[in-house]
Amino acid sequence: MEFLLKDKKIKELLRKHCYEVLEYLIHKKVNFSIVCNVCRVKFEPELPDSIRGSFSDLTVFILAGYTFESLELDSKNLYFEAGFGEENLGSFVTTPLDSIVQILLPNDEDLRADFCVFVNLFATFAELEQTKNGEEEGIHSSMKALLANPKNKRFKK
Fold first, then answer.
1. Which is it for the CA torsion 118, 121, 125, 129, positive or negative?
2. pTM of the predicted model, to two decimals?
3. CA-CA distance, 80 to 95, in Å (whole number)?
4. pLDDT at 87 over 60
5. What is the mean pLDDT of residues 71-82?
6. Which end of the chain is more exposed for a tag (fewer CB within 10 A), N or C?
7. Average pLDDT along the chain
């Protein structure tokens, strides 16, 4: 499975499929929820730690009412405005499509079990992948800075 985590083609297929499902639901005006890897989600303005800290690693956002009306979608992100906490603190949310683990439709007959219409288990590994990429970039940029000094050329292998 690890080789698939690095496979850009499968990531692109899943991102495209997520986009198409979201586009269809938005076009048909169907309320839905998303489960996403919250470490990749951006809030503007940033949420206070008391609210942000209450989120689990995989968090559900219910997209209905005003939040649904505020939805915007592009090829890489889903955007919406939502209220959080007891004060209903407003924030603009940017959710990368590759951080969406599930898209759920409400089950009117059994509120305990929504219908899952999209699953991307690779999104649960987003933080791990991001950390690895960040470490590699950091090592690369450090080495580049070190080798930029002519006196350090001897370290180049």
1. negative
2. 0.77
3. 9
4. yes
5. 97
6. C
7. 84
Whole-angstrom Cα Rg for the chain? 19
The span from the CA of 70 to the CA of 82, in Å, is 9
31 contact partners, CB below 8 Å, separation of at least 6: 62, 63, 64, 68, 106
DSSP letter for each residue of the chain: -HHHHT-HHHHHHHHHHHHHHHHHHHHTT--EEEEEEGGG-EEESPPPHHHHTT--SEEEEEE-HHHHHT-EE-SSEEEEEEEETTTTEEEEEEEEGGGEEEEEE--TT-TT-PEEEEE-GGGGGHHHHHHHHHHHHHHHHHHHHHHHSGGGGGG--
Rounded Cα–Cα distance for residues 122 and 129 (Å): 10
Question: Any idea which residue has 């609210």 for tokens?
Answer: 51
Provide the pLDDT for residue 76. 97
| Two tokens, residue 42 | 């951006």
Residue scoring higher pLDDT (53 or 131):
53
45 prior amide bond cis, ω within 30:
yes
| Greatest extent of the chain over all pairs of C-alpha atoms, in Å | 72
